[in-house]
């Protein structure tokens, strides 16, 4: 067992998983900042952190986010906050943390947390071409701003970060069923090797949202609003675009064309980055397996993802990785006809 992975496993086993984050403690933490909830706490859909919505005694709606201990440093969280605040000042509709006495990151009894305005809206529809073009326009604005300077503390998106570390973790975790370990790791290592072959490191890297799937976009009467910069990273621009593409090849091409039509009103897009779409998808699949494994000691995970402990899940993953390996050999998605 490598020293790094061994240390991570020991740290994860000892990690504090919100047991002491009771409703009373949450309310006390919020009130410690001079905000007094009038309603109860509505838990929002978040497993990595603990996130709640409430209304205060002045009628304003807030979201409070308690960060998972030991995941990010204070500097990394503050850099995320500063980035969101700068984007909001540049008239990008994004959920930026609220500052109280000049601070946006707070600590209460060992828990770090932040407060955000609650943004109303409905689900973003990727098959709505008007919404898609407007969203592309704002992503272009975000990237135009993002390219002005780099992150100092946030991670860089690389195959090693999402792929190799995931494989190393899973090999030591004991979560892959013994009878299918050989088949599982054979296919994931083949997949990772193919990703490394196809990865282009020559593209400019910019500050990214990092996890810009449709669930992190809300549609309001004024257009899209963006939430959750928790996974902000440095990397190629395509990372903030490819998760919008769904359906068969023809549908993806249409969605891509519409997205980039809006995007390029503000930022030029290097279409050579389209070659990274399927490698990025493969890395996300690998990282998802490792994420569930890393968090399995958190009681919320066995409750919400019980199938992770079943052989059937891992057998399905082997099939999914085989399919993705075959996709990596298909022609790259391109707006230029072959």
Write the layout of secondary structure elements.
Elements: H1 3-14, H2 23-31, E1 42-43, E2 50-55, E3 61-66, H3 74-89, E4 106-108, E5 111-117, E6 122-123, H4 129-146, H5 159-173, H6 181-198, E7 206-207, E8 217-220, E9 223-226, E10 234-235, H7 249-263, H8 277-294, H9 300-304, H10 311-327
Helix pairs in contact: 4-7, 5-6, 5-8, 6-8, 6-10, 8-10
Low-confidence stretches: 9-14
Number of helices: 10
How would you describe the shape? globular
How does the helix and strand content classify structurally?
Answer: alpha+beta
Task: Describe the overall structure.
With 338 residues, the chain is an alpha+beta fold. α5 packs parallel to α8 (277-294) and α8 (277-294) packs antiparallel against α10 (311-327). 42% of the residues lie in helices and 11% in strands. The termini are far apart. It contains 10 helices and 10 strands. The strands form 3 sheets. A 5-stranded antiparallel beta sheet has the order 1-2-3-5-4, with no helix packed on it. The protein is globular.
Provide tags for this entry.
single chain, 338 residues, alpha+beta, five-stranded antiparallel beta sheet, three-stranded antiparallel beta sheet, 10 helices, 10 strands, 42% helix, 11% strand, globular
In short:
The protein is an alpha+beta fold and 338 residues long. It has helices at 3-14, 23-31, 74-89, 129-146, 159-173, 181-198, 249-263, 277-294, 300-304, 311-327, and strands spanning 42-43, 50-55, 61-66, 106-108, 111-117, 122-123, 206-207, 217-220, 223-226, 234-235.
């Amino acid at each position: 067992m490598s020293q790094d992975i061994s240390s991570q496993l020991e740290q994860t086993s000892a990690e504090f998983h919100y047991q002491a984050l009771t409703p009373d403690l949450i309310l006390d933490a919020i009130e410690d900042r001079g905000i007094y909830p009038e309603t109860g706490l509505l838990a929002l859909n978040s497993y990595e952190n603990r996130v709640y919505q409430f209304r205060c005694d002045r009628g304003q709606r807030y979201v409070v986010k308690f960060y998972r201990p030991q995941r990010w440093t204070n500097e990394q969280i503050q850099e995320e906050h500063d980035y969101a605040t700068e984007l909001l000042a540049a008239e990008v509709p994004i959920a930026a943390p609220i500052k109280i006495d000049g601070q946006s990151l707070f600590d209460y009894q060992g828990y770090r947390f932040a407060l955000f305005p609650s943004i109303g809206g409905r689900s973003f529809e990727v098959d709505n071409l008007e919404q898609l073009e407007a969203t592309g326009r704002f992503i272009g604005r975000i990237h135009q701003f993002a390219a002005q300077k780099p992150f100092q503390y946030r991670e860089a998106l690389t195959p090693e970060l999402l792929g190799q570390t995931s494989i190393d973790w899973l090999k030591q975790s004991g979560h892959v069923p013994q009878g299918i370990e050989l088949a599982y790791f054979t296919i994931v290592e083949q997949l990772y090797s193919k990703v490394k072959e196809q990865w282009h490191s020559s593209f400019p890297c910019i500050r990214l949202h990092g996890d810009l799937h449709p669930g992190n976009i809300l549609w309001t009467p004024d257009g899209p609003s963006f939430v959750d910069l928790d996974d902000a990273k440095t990397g190629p621009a395509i990372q903030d675009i490819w998760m919008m593409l769904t359906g068969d090849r023809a549908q993806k091409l249409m969605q891509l064309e519409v997205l980039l039509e809006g995007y390029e009103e503000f930022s030029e897009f290097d279409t050579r980055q389209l070659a990274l779409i399927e490698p990025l998808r493969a890395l996300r699949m690998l990282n998802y397996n490792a994420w569930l494994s890393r968090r399995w000691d958190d009681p919320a995970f066995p409750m919400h993802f019980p199938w992770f402990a079943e052989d059937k899940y891992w057998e399905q993953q082997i099939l999914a990785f085989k399919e993705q390996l075959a996709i990596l050999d298909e022609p790259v998605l391109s707006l230029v006809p072959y």
